[in-house]
Structures are given as structure tokens and as C-alpha cells.
Amino acid sequence: MFVLIWATFLLCVCAETGTSQQCIGQYCITLSETLTAEAGLCVVIPCSFATGFGFTPKHIVWYKCEAYSRCDYDHQIIFHTNKNIRVQYGFEGRVSLLEPDIRQNNCSIIINDLKESDSGLYRIRVNGELNRREDGFASIQTTTVSVEGLSQKPRVKIPTLTEGQQATLTCVAPGLCSGSAPEITWTWRGAGGTESYITGSSTSFRTKTLTAFTQRHISTLTFNSSAEHHNTNVTCKICFAGEKTTEEGFNFKSKLC
Questions:
Q1: Which of 83, 102, 101, 100 lies closest to 92, judged by CA?
Q2: pLDDT in tens, 199-214
């Protein structure tokens, strides 16, 4: 049973950063108001909190809800630091805290492998103990997350190609998410317009870890450049979770001997 805290509610909005600080007495939560992200990638919801004297945070709870909902029902939970608590279907394993130690007063989360259906309102609650009794507080305002279709393109690095010499192309997937690794494929289209894989080539895939929650996915294509590749179109195609795809094509202009 939670202790009910009666206090004046204060909401301060910072127009420059798009965040709001919501306080009930000595308990404050700073939260982003609106965020936009793309399907297949990820979104970070920045969040921090401050507590009154004697309060010990124990668990962070995040809810996703629809407009005009109370947004504090158990079936609306998408993340809970108590792993025994069931979360909404489809969010399992996709949501995590940026800072696992909640004593740092950081309640920011990252949601990976985004879907359009992830658009909605998100609310945070901090559960804990006040003078050895269960207590907690929640944000009054919510964060609005809008997930749009995937529009970002991969980055392709193309060296100068010379006939008879080995060439290596590099394709960097958009986004810096730590969710499911995307599938990266290379194809080329000849003068006849038929798409196929580049014969006699080899590909490799690697993930470069930037932070505990950000990664860069990279694919390389190595082949021997020849006259048949001149003036053909090569495409790097990225397929993310949920069958979200993006691609970038370019035209080969090799130096013919």
C-alpha cells in the first residue's frame, strides 16, 4: 500500500529543450514532452528524478497508454525493473534503462526495434520506500512518442575502382541501436536490368559497439573489379526487425585498363 502525499503540484516547461519538470513537494521528474523516431530503429526517452529526504528508490516502472487513459494500470506496463512483473505483449526484451543503477536518479529508457504501433503516450513511475513504508510517485504529464516510417538511408563508402584490382565497398546501416542486428545484402544490376549477387565476391558483417546501448552495424563487400562491373548499379539493402527496409544504390565507374 502506498502512502498518499498531499502537496502542491508544480509543472515547469522548458521551451528550448522540450522537457518539463514536474514536482509534487520534494519529488520531481524531468521528462521530454515529445519525441519522433523511425520504425526499425530506436528511441531514447530522457528522464531523471529527484526525491525527498528519507525516500529510497527501489523500482522504475514505465507505462504506454492511449489518450485519455489513466496510464497506470498493470496491463499498460512496458518496463519494470522487477523482472517478475509481466509487461505488455510485444515489448519483452526491447526496453531497457540507460543507467541500470536507479540510485543515480536516471530513469531514461531506450526502446529498440521500433514499430509504428509504438506511437503513443509514455509515463514513468518511481516506486520505493519512505521511512520503511512502501511509497512512490509518478509523472503527471506524459511523453508523446511518434514513430514514423523508415526514411534514413545507409551510408556507402566507394573507393576508386580499377579493373583487375581488388575493391572493398563499405555499407553502414542507419541508426545506432542495440536491438536486433539488421540483415545487410549487396546486389548489382547489369545493363540488361537483371538484379543478381556479385559473383566471385565475399561479404563480412561486423557490429561496432560505441556505448553500452549504441552500436553501429557495418557490412563490407570485397571483389575483383572487372570490365563487366563498369557502368552497373550496385545496391546495399538493409532489413531491420519487422521487415523495415532501406537501401542505397550507386553507379560503378571503374577505371578501365
A1: 83
A2: 667 889 999 988 878 8
